[in-house]
Write a structure and sequence with these properties.
Helices cover about 40% and strands about 15% of the residues. With about 250 residues, it is α/β, with parallel strands linked by helices. The chain has a single domain, classed as NAD(P)-binding Rossmann-like Domain (Rossmann fold), CATH 3.40.50.720. Strands 3-2-1-4-5-6-7 form a seven-stranded parallel sheet, sandwiched between helices. It is globular.
């Protein structure tokens, strides 16, 4: 049974990826900050696969250690998905209004935590394992009010490709899933109607295709890979939860 660790998996894209991998027979370890949504997701996943849910914050070294210990209790990892992210406020601040504490929190969650979790996981990865770091088009494009979040995703992209250069025995992807209808995306546009955005489930076939095709390490846009089922996904309600991050 392949083994995956997914951070920020109680809602949104992380939860969608976890459910699909569970149906495909993967053993899963998931985390999130909020216990109740995580518990709900764990109960649903446990109906179809072995799952370990560890509540906590990825910026906490003790939580990262506990998470990795649980994830590798029965064997090495085949897949690490660094999905947990911080948005930086709702509404998003312009750079001139982004204070040091908020920006530091962004960097701790979106850049430092993935690097430290990955660093600790290296010796517990199976040969040929895949590391997916969830990025954003805001890391490559420049939008008003997205400078704080976007700059951390740009750093994550750079980090991912440096990992690929330094650790070529594994496969490394910085993945841009596109705009999705999540609580985090809603928080970026408070009071606006975002129902034109696709549900997170519509992006998951692209992730599965990526894992199947295994192109060379690099920055990947799911829009270039996705095989979507928008009819079924659009019938599902948008996520509720922590309005400022997917590590809910």
């Amino acid at each position: 049974m392949p083994n995956a660790l997914i951070t920020g998996a109680s809602v949104g894209l992380g939860r969608a990826i976890a459910h699909t991998l569970a149906q495909a027979g993967w053993s899963l370890t998931i985390d999130a900050r909020s216990r109740d949504p995580l518990r709900t997701t764990e109960q649903a996943l446990a109906r179809v696969t072995a799952v370990r849910a560890i509540p906590g914050d990825v910026t906490d070294p003790a939580h990262r250690a506990a998470l990795l210990a649980a994830a590798t209790e029965t064997g090495p990892l085949d897949l690490l998905v660094n999905n947990a992210s911080e948005l930086g406020g709702s509404p998003l601040p312009r750079l001139r209004d982004l204070d040091a504490a908020a920006y530091e929190r962004l960097w701790q969650t979106n850049v430092l935590a993935p690097q430290q979790l990955t660093r600790a996981a290296l010796s517990r990865l199976n040969p040929g394992a895949v590391i997916l770091n969830i990025s954003s088009d805001a890391g490559a494009e420049h939008y008003e009010q997205w400078g704080g979040y976007g700059s951390t995703k740009a750093a994550l992209d750079h980090q991912t490709l440096t990992w690929a250069a330094e650790e070529p025995q594994f496969t490394w992807y910085a993945v841009d899933p596109g705009d999705l209808r999540t609580a985090m995306h809603q928080a970026a546009f408070p009071g606006e109607d975002i129902t034109d955005r696709p549900m997170p489930e519509t992006a998951v076939p692209g992730f599965l295709r990526l894992l199947d095709l295994r192109p060379s390490s690099g920055r990947i846009r799911i829009a270039d890979l996705a095989i979507t089922d928008t009819a079924s996904a659009d019938e599902q309600p948008a996520d509720a939860g922590d309005p400022v991050g997917v590590n809910a």
